[in-house]
Amino acid sequence: MSPPLIRLARPDEYDEVGRVWMESWVSTGLAEASNFLLANLRARVRREIDDGWTLFVADDNGAIAAMLALHLPNHYLDQLFVAPAWQGRSLGRQLLAFTRTQLPDEIYLRCVRENEKAWRWYEREGFVFEKEEIAEATGFMMKCYRWKRPA
Q1: Element of type H or E holding 3
Q2: What is the pTM of this model?
Q3: Given CB 3.0 to 4.6 Å as the disulfide criterion, which of 28, 56, 69, 112 pairs with 78?
Q4: Do residues 75 and 109 make contact, with C-beta atoms less than 8 angstroms apart?
Q5: Element at 123 (helix H, strand E)
Q6: Are 113 and 132 in contact (CB under 8 A)?
Q7: Domain segments of the chain: what residues?
Q8: Is residue 107 classed as helix, strand or coil in its secondary structure?
Q9: Contact, 68 vs 80, CB < 8 A?
Q10: Is 5-148 a CATH 3.40.50.2000 domain?
């Protein structure tokens, strides 16, 4: 079985990306699935693309297994979410390796402080904690990380 193909998301897939985002976010235990959350995330996908996101998906034979949102000019990995059915298969690691091809020198990211599984994973992947800050849009306390290519 071949790994999912990482490619640019198409506009007709944005609603499905929002669903994958919600299901993955809910799997952290930090939110509950709802039509309200789904509608907000779907709207945010479009708004963020207008604001500079480059949006990728992991396509597993036509099913969207994950989403990856990068803001390339800012060296920013904004969102990396793997759908629950694909978690535990190293897809996050594949997406991070792909991110390093897009942002080979430096990557900045923020992670919700309560999402310990995620930030511990980023630390194992070589990201260095820099500071904490409140996300204005959500009110969550965020842990800020940076990775730089080794000299």
Answers
A1: none
A2: 0.95
A3: 69
A4: no
A5: helix 116-124
A6: yes
A7: 5-148
A8: strand
A9: yes
A10: no
